Amino acid sequence: MKASYNKYILNFKQPSGTSRGVLKTKETWFIILEHEGKQGIGECGILRGLSADDVPNYEEQLQWTCNNIHLGLAVLYDTMKVFPSIQFGLEMAFKSLDSKTPFDLFPSEFTQNKKSTPINGLIWMGTDVFMKQQIQDKIEAGFTCIKMKIGAIDFETEIGLLKSIRKEFSANDIELRVDANGAFSETDALEKLKRLSDLNLHSIEQPIKAGQIEAMAKLCHETPLPIALDEELIGVFENSDKALLLEQIKPQYIILKPSFVGGWQGSQEWMQHAENNQIGWWITSALESNVGLNAIAQWTYTLNNNMPQGLGTGSLFTNNFESPLTIKKGSLFYDKNKSWHFNISSSTSN
Q: May I ask which residue range the UniProt record assigns to the signal sequence (predicted)?
């Protein structure tokens, strides 16, 4: 078996704002396996400034992984414990190699285009005019679940935007989720959650910064609005530590990004602990290309979770790979009439 890796830079169609800054490009890496005339493709979806494995020797780890591909998936997965995006890239590449085609990873009614997966429409931060336009576009496109990033502009403006949605659409019409990305302070978080809860929101992601275990546990206990942990899960590598974290904080939900938590296996560990503690969960992509998104979407369908998932990021880039993934009326479909066009020959190769 031969293995190589490639770097690829995804370009956003328009700068996308978060509480951590504005994103214009997104770096990603691919592991390519070749064996007996077949090819396996895996994406290592690192997000600089957020991923636990955003470290200076990341590329060295990819090179070492490719040089030692003969060790097999199980050994390499364990060896890459502190590199969750490489773990996922390896899982994906080996699964791809063993599949009928490189992209048919989990055959199902989803890949046959008989069933779809409901997803949320993502509203990026920006001026109130820009955010209003995004909201209007998502509703017109048929989304019934909208996720709005908050915490970067004035809180009163954000409350006003949410109120404007609720004036036209009840909670039965439109499910509203908000994502603070840790923007609230420990002192004002509870009061803000109380005000947000008046708007019949579904949940809020990561209201305060990760790592404040006692404060987050207190907030989850007192909150009038369900809290979903997101960044809090990043960098928790040991299975026993995952169980302990959820037992300590007791959130209402957790959000699983396979590229951040060790792929399918790492996500399954979190799910098991969540279910042991009556904690809900859903799956979200982390700005991967359509290759990684496809792997997450196909797997997610097999989990039989009927909640809207966070899988609508494939249309954000100008140079994403053409794929059968299609969004219609707030759901993700796998349109078999569309073909894959995966070409990274212009990227950095090793």
A: none
Can you give the pLDDT of all 350 residues of the chain as single tens digits?
A: 999 999 999 999 988 766 567 889 999 999 999 999 999 999 999 999 899 999 999 999 999 999 999 999 999 999 999 999 999 999 999 999 999 999 999 999 999 999 999 999 998 877 888 888 988 999 999 999 999 988 877 899 999 989 999 998 999 999 999 999 899 999 999 999 999 999 999 999 999 999 999 999 999 999 999 999 999 999 999 999 999 999 999 999 999 999 999 999 999 999 999 999 999 999 999 999 999 999 999 999 999 999 999 998 888 899 999 999 999 999 999 999 999 999 875 333 34
Top-level class of domain 2-98: alpha beta
CA distances from 128 to 121, 157, 296 (A): 17, 7, 32
Reduced to 3 states (helix: H, G, I; strand: E, B; else coil), residue 243 is: helix
Domain locations in the chain as residue ranges: 2-98, 117-334
Query: Which residue shows structure tokens 């196909």?
Result: 298
Give one DSSP letter per residue of 136-176, joined into a string: HHHHHTT-SEEEEE-SSS-HHHHHHHHHHHHHH--TTT-EE
What is the rounded CA–CA span in Å between residue 17 and residue 191? Answer: 25
- Look at residues 103, 87, 84, 86 and name the one whose alpha carbon lies nearest to residue 95: 103
- At residue 119, φ and ψ (nearest 5 deg) are -130, 165
- For residues 2 and 263, is the Cβ–Cβ distance under 8 A? no
Residue 158: closest CA among 183, 114, 184, 125: 125
CA–CA separation, 224 and 203 (whole Å): 10
Question: Any idea which residues carry the catalytic annotation?
Answer: 149, 257
**306: how many CB neighbours lie within 10 A of its CB?**
9
* DSSP class of 295: H
